[in-house]
Amino acid sequence: GYTTDPEKLYYTTKIFEILVLLLGLTIILRNVFSNLSRKNKRIIFELVVAIFLLVSILIRWNLFGEYPDSVLLTSKKYILTNIFVTLIFIQELGKFSLLVNKLKLSPSLIFILSFSILTIIGTALLYLPRSTTAGISLIDAFFTATSAVCVTGLIVLDTSTAFTPFGQVVIMTLFQIGGLGMMTFTTFFGFFFRGSLSLENSLFLRDYINEKNVGAISSTLIKIVIFTVLVEFFAALLIYVFTEDSLFASAGQKLFFSAFHAISAFCNAGFSTLSSGLYEPGFRYLYHMHLVVAVTIVLGGIGFPVFINYYNYLVRVLTGAVRFVFIGEKYRHTPRVSNINTRLVMYTSTALMLVGFATYWYFEQDFTLKGLSYYGKFVTSVFGAVTPRTAGFNSVDMTALSVPTILIYLILMWIGASPGSTGGGIKTSTFAVALLNTWSVVTGRRRMEIFGRQISAESNRKAFAVIALSFFTIGLGVFLVTIYNPELALIDVAFEIFSAYSTVGLSLGITAQLSTASKLVVTVVMFFGRVGTLTILVAISRKIKERRYKYPEETIYIT
Amino acid sequence: GYTTDPEKLYYTTKIFEILVLLLGLTIILRNVFSNLSRKNKRIIFELVVAIFLLVSILIRWNLFGEYPDSVLLTSKKYILTNIFVTLIFIQELGKFSLLVNKLKLSPSLIFILSFSILTIIGTALLYLPRSTTAGISLIDAFFTATSAVCVTGLIVLDTSTAFTPFGQVVIMTLFQIGGLGMMTFTTFFGFFFRGSLSLENSLFLRDYINEKNVGAISSTLIKIVIFTVLVEFFAALLIYVFTEDSLFASAGQKLFFSAFHAISAFCNAGFSTLSSGLYEPGFRYLYHMHLVVAVTIVLGGIGFPVFINYYNYLVRVLTGAVRFVFIGEKYRHTPRVSNINTRLVMYTSTALMLVGFATYWYFEQDFTLKGLSYYGKFVTSVFGAVTPRTAGFNSVDMTALSVPTILIYLILMWIGASPGSTGGGIKTSTFAVALLNTWSVVTGRRRMEIFGRQISAESNRKAFAVIALSFFTIGLGVFLVTIYNPELALIDVAFEIFSAYSTVGLSLGITAQLSTASKLVVTVVMFFGRVGTLTILVAISRKIKERRYKYPEETIYIT
Ligand SMILES: [K+]
Ligand SMILES: [K+]
């Protein structure tokens, strides 16, 4: 069902129609006035699309005679218009990444702007009457769009009942783009449509995907997108297989369910089309499916740099093996399995996963694990260890968790996933550097060393700043929500803000009760958490040139 | 009144008598067998004391005929014995500092051991039947002794009703020694009795009081003790003046009250002989007295290095002025007012005080400030800004605080006082370094600079480690207490543990409800907070010699 407010429906529909009209006109005008030598085959396609858009709007405005409204609303024509608009949107998005690179903005500012723009687009789309079943307030649309773009998963409206299939597709698109990183996504499409990557784009992506070799960036980008699509495809396939048919009205619905949850899991988004998440009756005991979701979450949270590292290693080993077998060439040297970043991330992630599993298993025996089968306990504990970092799905009733588990969740959420991944938090690498620094100070060393490498002082300073800013943002968030919603318990508010900052999306059930001011606070915290408080501050702060001379060094009296 | 358990009274009295007997014998034997050339005038004094102790015990054991028990218990002789025992104890304490220096232990280990030994002595003294009015369990004696030695001020028994005047004197002595630092205290007495300072003692104190010039240590030590005594004396005097006579049964009681609160304030101990602290009816509106206590707290929390810095500056300026006036000597150069440590501490402390005052003023208008006079609101806000850092006195009903104030208190408590002071927390300097580091990372600088000085990387690493360890300790403390006392609200537990770690002593009223296991946890947290988690880890960890060669440097991918 659509919104019940006919006036709102009327105006938004009119605005949409005018926008489509303008879009069609713009495309035609641009192609007419553009440099002839640069015209290519695509212009014909674009002209066809533009004319189609114009005609469809003119039909709707009764220029070719009158049709009953009901025919137009449900007609195939309207769906076709949507498809064309979407295609053009994606194509323009590809050009967008080129455009912003021409603006010569700093990478961090681009990063922030891209997320902001995506959020605004998302808010507008979710505010459309056709997105919701019973209307939505602007703040709720903004909150939901931010939550989706930032792959947080906190919800003020039930995704399953408050949003139409169209709204759900919008949400899914938002967290897919947001999870992959707006710029990764748009650059890929720019690359896809143009066939090459601009230097600016390369330089920006170098920071974002942590690829030092500029020449390898385009291939790295393709690897990332293919990796994403492959994992999401197989995850959706397995979710489809392990979910019972009887739970859905049609195969199409089941397919959509599988795709939605596969993407949501890989992007660590935590959105679900079920009211109670995976705890929904019927889905609660589908442990095979839970395990698929858990593995997908881990793959999304491990970070693209780690994936690229292992991929390159595998390719090298395979190439070597093939050469050895077919050409008889001797294996020259064993390549390093993984670089220091990968190792640090893998060790820390594994340790956190084990700690999460063991503590969940221990503290939840009399709570959420009570009465489950042995396999059920195992899968639920695995899921419980994985979801706070920072997937945000729930396979149990969150309000039934024991207090120790909630405290461990706070820590796991705060640490979060690995850098360059779809997850949030301060990141495993930051946490690892904090531990290494403490260890080296305790053992009285002046250098931080691990795996035969020395960690740079710069990494240490940055990790310290990230941790300090995380506490600042979280503290301020808790403080403000406490002021705007004084009736809420501190632990619930703290959990909510940690969840928002680390883009987890788990909640002890207060999200819908937040006042508008609190919702805005949580929105800002989600945004800061996803983009990074440090990134934002670096982007807006004036760079200070360093002096040529040094001041004398002083040691501060600590403790 | 004394304990009601006659059996316990009998045994502890017997043990005390045997100890006094052994002490007397030891002194005599030592003087007889000691090197004749090293004998000095004090031997005669010691022999007299020893013989007196022996005789007094033999009298009590009826070797010279029988006396009624009641005569002996209340006789002047018994009080004299106590005074002599105390004198000998202090003298031996002075020798103790020399002894531990001969053991060639690391300074941090000495620091830890001295606090441990003082806690054990305190526990034994508070466990004596004469310390309490109605008996005390061993865990409560241990808790109270640790709280006093660590100048925390958390209490499981009401200091005013559960402890006898003797017990209160024990507590006061413990926090006086603990606040000044056990080694400062004992070294001073060793120095006082011997007239000189050993090199080991000097080297240890150099770290502790942050005095770089080894030659200046003995004079610095004297300055510290004189500063302490002077501030405490004038604070007691003013408290005496500003408190009404009618509140006390006698002038002696009023004097004891004044001394107790002056020492407690300067040492940031937070112990009070009033059941409700300064919120006690009758004392509640003595704002002049509150202000005196607040200023004393600030003087104690500012740190001895800062005091020494200003003192030396003042002396130099005065000397210069005197020379100029009387000799006509031209003032050669203006000495630096204060070093970087002092400045950092002063700026941070002032900022925190202002923030504390403003937020208390704003958020408490409808809570603890309601209905107070303008002056009352001012003083209560000043007090409210000062007490969480980390004095622990309360001039209001703590359970009536607004939630925003409680959250701000958590932060102020965590930051705490300045290094080298009687207060706790991570310290203002650590907090300042964290801010400076964040600022320099945000503005893209590779160096941390302030006041024309560069902060060493070592300071930064240490600050990072201190902050990381503080969260680790606090987190573990909250976690364990939550497990052992699942019925308590998280905010109360968090406040309690922050209070314990930063040796604040404020509580939302749950201390007495803690289970024995939780009390032990809080005790350990208090100890870690006072001695410093980093200090403890450095002391117990094996030092790792650094390699001659360096590993290649790597940058970790942060964010
Ligand atoms: K999430
Ligand atoms: K205290």
Q: Could you describe the 3D structure shown?
A:
Two copies of one chain form a homodimer. Chain A is mainly α and 559 residues long. Chain A has helices at 6-33, 42-60, 69-74, 76-102, 107-127, 138-149, 159-162, 165-180, 182-194, 199-209, 217-242, 251-266, 287-301, 304-327, 340-363, 374-391, 403-415, 428-442, 457-484, 490-501, 516-531, 533-540; strands at 449-450, 453-455, 553-554. One potassium ion is lined by residues 151-153, 268-270, 390-392, 503-505 of chain A.
Major β-sheet strand ordering of chain A = 1-2
Mean pLDDT of chain A, nearest integer? 79
- Strand residue percentage of chain A: under 5%
Main interface: chain pair and counts: A-B, 79 and 80 residues
Key terms:
homodimer, 559 residues, mainly alpha, two-stranded antiparallel sheet, 22 helices, 1% strand, binds potassium ion
Secondary-structure topology with pairs:
Two copies of one chain form a homodimer.
Chain A: H1 6-33, H2 42-60, H3 69-74, H4 76-102, H5 107-127, H6 138-149, H7 159-162, H8 165-180, H9 182-194, H10 199-209, H11 217-242, H12 251-266, H13 287-301, H14 304-327, H15 340-363, H16 374-391, H17 403-415, H18 428-442, E1 449-450, E2 453-455, H19 457-484, H20 490-501, H21 516-531, H22 533-540, E3 553-554
Antiparallel strand pairs in A: 1-2
Helix pairs in contact in A: 1-2, 2-4, 4-9, 5-6, 5-8, 5-22, 6-8, 6-21, 8-9, 8-12, 9-11, 10-11, 11-12, 11-13, 12-13, 13-16, 15-16, 15-17, 15-18, 16-17, 17-20, 18-19, 19-20, 19-21, 20-21, 21-22
Bound molecules: potassium ion (2 copies).
One potassium ion is lined by residues 151-153, 268-270, 390-392, 503-505 of chain B.
